[in-house]
Fold:
Amino acid sequence: MDFNLDETQQEIADLARRILEDRVTHLSIRTIEAGSEWFDRDTWAELAKAGLVGIALREDVGGGGMGLVELGQVLEAQGRTVAPLPLVPTTGAALAIDQFGTLAQRQAWLPGVADGSTVLSVALQEYGNDDLEQPYVSARPSGDAWVLTGAKVMVEYAVQAARVVVSARTPDGPALFLVDPKAAADLVAGLTSRKEPVHELHLENTPAELLGSVTEGATMLRWLVDRMLGLVCSVQVGVTDKQVRITADYTSTREQFGRPIATFQAVTQRLANAYIDVQAMRLSTYSALWRLANGLDAAEDLRVAKWFASDGAHHIAHGAQHMHGGAGVDIENPLHRYTLWSKHLECSLGAGTASLRALGAQLAAG
Structure:
């Protein structure tokens, strides 16, 4: 098997990396973190101008007509620069609308995603519910429309989003809905470990627009969960890759007992283990994305990838801090931000244990 990127994919990866690395710096992120949005709007506009935000959307709505592997390169570049951008929630929601939405829904929201003027979000997580495919939030028909009741947590960019794709259970099973966050009963602000503002989305008979159909709702929700897992893992690949590179550079110059600490066997072995973890994460993630892009079942692959993105990333983050001898926790050291991002992504959409339980259930069902 050939695991290398093809020429087009490599060009996309290089372009995304160049835009983000040229524009996103430790100082620029600190400035954005001091504000209220946690949103680098100028860089977002540049990515959209380059066609990278809508790269996986169909061409009739202004997208690039590419696939998940290509989108994964953009997200990996985001992880490598820890750029505060709504790439995961916006592209995840946009993919669902592009796949299941009516022509009117696609035309209403996707051209704006492609040109950078529209932000979207996704609401899948709930308190006390590890099963993303069995939501607690309820949906019931009300005349010709639907209303939702319940609460979603960890909703990113809820304030900036024009619409949120929300999972809910109907009398006939789970389904997906489009909700205007401004119509929610309440938006309760919170803060993640990476200093990102997130919200609880409280719904009380909140108007919602059905996405797709109720009869195919369970299949559509599984489709979205799979892709969201792949997107989160892609960002984590970039975060952990950069952590290892920062640590390799540091240990090559930091001297103790008259020589660089990278020459000590214990340090070398730990860096080697971290490198192997990154490669396992990358391989499992892009294997899953490739299978999804080609219409193949990727359920097991995604759970393996998410386990590496949680458990492997945990070891990499702690190892990097250990090898920095405490210097990495200083907020003036860029490494601290990669640690915060890694911990956030580790737990997003289920941490390592949840991923293993889901994988075990899939294998048992056989």
